[in-house]
Amino acid sequence: MKINFYHKEIRSLVKSFSYAFRGLWFCIRNERNMRIHIVSSVLVLLFSLIYGLTRVELAVLSVTLGLVMMCELINTAIEALVNLESPSYDNLARIAKDVAAGAVLMCAFAAVGVAIALFLRPAKLAAAIATILSTPMYAMGFLLILVVGLVFIFKGPKRERPNRDAVKVYRPENRRKRRLHDETSGTHKKR
C-alpha cells in the first residue's frame, strides 16, 4: 500500500516538473526577450568568475538574474491569458500586456543597478577586461559565446504557435453548452 502511494506521489512530482519545463521551453522558443536574458546572464556570470566576485556577490547576482527571467516568464503567462480571453484588440488587454512588460523592464533596470554596484570598481574592472583580452582562450570563448548567443537570440529555436483546437480549454460556457447539448440529445452522463 505504502509503495503504491509513494509511486503515485513520485509520478505526480515528475509530471509537475515536466509541465514547468514545458512552460519554460515555450517561453524560450517564443520570446526573443527571454533569449536575450539567457545570453546576457551567461555572459555576465562568466565575466563575474573572471572578475572575482565573492560568493555573496555571486549569489546576489544570480538571484537578480533569476528574478529578471522569472518576470519574463510571468509576462509571457499574462500575455497568453490576455490573448486567450480577448483574441481581438481590446484597450484593457493592451493595458494588461503593457503593464506586464513594464514590470519586466523595471526588473531589468534593477538588475542593471545591481550590476553597476557589483562591477563598478574601475581598477578591478580594467584588470578583468585585460585578463580576457590578453588570454586567447578567454577572448575566443567570450567571442564564441557572443556569436552563438546572437544567433540564438535572433534565429532561436523554431517558434511554437499554440493551436487552440488541439488544446482543450476549460471555460464555464463550454461546460454549460455541453450540459445543454447532453440534455437536448437525451444523453446524461454522471461526472
Instruction: Give the CA-based shape.
Output: globular
Q: Please report which band the strand proportion falls in: under 5%, 5-15%, 15-25%, 25-35%, 35-45% or over 45%.
A: under 5%
Mean pLDDT over the residues: 86
User: Any guess at the CATH architecture?
Assistant: Orthogonal Bundle
Number of strands: 0
Secondary structural class: mainly alpha
Main pleated-sheet profile: none
Helix content: over 70%
Number of helices: 7
Active site: 72
Region (Disordered): 165-191
Subcellular location: Cell membrane
GO molecular function: ATP binding; kinase activity; metal ion binding
Which SSEs are present, and which pair or pack?
Layout (H helix, E strand, L loop, with lengths): L1 H29 L1 H20 L3 H31 L5 H29 L2 H13 L1 H19 L17 H14 L6
Protein name: Prokaryotic diacylglycerol kinase
Cofactor: Mg(2+)
GO cellular component, one term: plasma membrane
Structural features, described:
InterPro entries: DAGK (IPR000829), DAGK_sf (IPR036945), UDPK (IPR033717). The active site is at 72 (proton acceptor). There is one protein chain. The chain is mostly helical and 191 residues long. It has one domain (2-185): Orthogonal Bundle (Helix Hairpins), CATH 1.10.287.3610. 81% of the residues lie in helices and 0% in strands. The protein has helices spanning 2-30, 32-51, 55-85, 91-119, 122-134, 136-154, 172-185. Helix 2 (32-51) runs antiparallel to helix 3 (55-85). 9% of the residues are buried. The mean pLDDT is 86.
